[in-house]
């Protein structure tokens, strides 16, 4: 077998040409999800499956957020009923160890969530950090995000960012609720108080709380997953993933309703 030789400059040219095409097509989308953890990827799957043009922006170079470290780095993670509906839908294997308690392989959950959402039509930008939002007044509305390559953010250099417009922005950034925190700090008219963060661990209440409070924060701005816990000062639940998946599905349903 001989591997076809490709000139270095051609490789770069193809990357640049195709990336610019992709980026210009995604400067204006229906929904931007910030964070490719369990809640963000579940939301991406259900949105894309319903024909919503969805872009997921993830600061790291990989998918999964907290899934990989899901129980002190041990190689099994836990979820409970009725999140098995979602596991079945994305074709992720699991087994029941007690009545209604399921065990999965974290690597498989990451891969299946990513693959299901991409197959449904969602697109991802990896290695990109959301550092701000776009807003409009009268009435106040969040209309997109401001992004920066994570490598630039880490370097501390001042480089002007790129702005992407969307009809809805979903904060799926986890424990820090980074997008809602930015809005609370930079847009006082939004009337969001300082984000309190999460309470100590109380797993059953934490799971119930996230699911119940998942929803719209402001026109154009939504929260899912642990971001919800941080915004509304709910208790943490530790390494159980049911409410992350169910919160992702719930926010997708809410956003789809609002977009129509
Ligand atoms: O933390 P993360 O997994 O959030 P989640 O979907 O799930 C939480 C659980 O994993 C777990 C738990 C419950 O069992 O306690 O922790 O709520 O995923 C958040 C993702 O967002 C990315 C971050 O790198 C991670 O992959 N992220 C955070 N801030 C930004 C960001 C940002 N400003 N721009 C882009 N990505």
Structure description:
By secondary structure, the protein is α/β, with parallel strands linked by helices. The chain has one domain: FAD/NAD(P)-binding domain (3-Layer(bba) Sandwich), CATH 3.50.50. 39% of the residues lie in helices and 26% in strands. Strands 1, 2, 6, 7, 8, 9, 11 and 12 form an eight-stranded mixed beta sheet that branches. Strands 3-5-4 form a three-stranded antiparallel beta sheet. The model has no long low-confidence stretch (mean pLDDT 97). Bound molecules: ligand 48F. The site of ligand 48F has 28 residues, from helix 2, strand 2, strand 7 and helix 8.
Helix-strand topology string: HEHEEHEEHEEEHEHEHEEHEH
The tally of helices reads 9
User: What is the fourth-level CATH superfamily?
Assistant: FAD/NAD(P)-binding domain
List each distinct ligand once. ligand 48F
Q: What do the pLDDT scores average to?
A: 97
Q: Sheet with the most strands?
A: 8 strands, mixed
Per CATH, the architecture is: 3-Layer(bba) Sandwich
Radius of gyration: 19 Å
Unreliable stretches, pLDDT < 50, 5 or more residues? none
**Could you name the CATH topology?**
FAD/NAD(P)-binding domain
What is the terminal-to-terminal distance?
A: 53 Å
């Amino acid at each position: 077998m001989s591997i076809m030789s490709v000139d270095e400059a051609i490789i770069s040219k193809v990357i640049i040409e195709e990336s610019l095409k992709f980026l210009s097509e995604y400067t204006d989308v229906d929904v931007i999800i910030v964070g490719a953890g369990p809640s963000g990827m579940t939301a991406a799957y259900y949105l894309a499956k319903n024909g919503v043009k969805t872009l997921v922006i993830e600061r790291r170079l990989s998918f999964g957020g907290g899934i990989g470290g899901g129980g002190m780095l041990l190689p099994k993670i836990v979820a409970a009923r009725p999140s098995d509906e979602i596991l079945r839908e994305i074709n992720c294997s699991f087994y029941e160890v007690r009545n209604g308690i399921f065990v999965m392989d974290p690597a498989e959950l990451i891969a299946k969530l990513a693959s299901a959402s991409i197959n449904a039509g969602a697109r991802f930008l990896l290695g990109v950090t959301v550092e701000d939002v776009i807003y409009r007044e009268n009435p106040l509305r969040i209309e997109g995000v401001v992004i920066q390559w994570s490598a630039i953010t880490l370097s501390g250099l001042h480089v002007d960012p790129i702005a992407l417009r969307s009809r809805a922005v979903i904060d799926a950034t986890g424990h820090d609720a980074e997008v809602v925190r930015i809005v609370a700090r930079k847009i006082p008219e939004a009337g969001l108080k300082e984000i309190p963060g999460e309470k100590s661990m109380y797993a059953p209440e934490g799971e119930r709380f996230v699911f119940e409070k998942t929803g719209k924060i402001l026109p154009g701005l939504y929260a899912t997953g642990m971001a919800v816990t941080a915004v509304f000062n709910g208790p943490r639940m530790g390494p159980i993933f049911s409410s992350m998946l169910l919160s992702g599905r719930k926010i997708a349903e809410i956003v789809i309703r609002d977009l129509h």
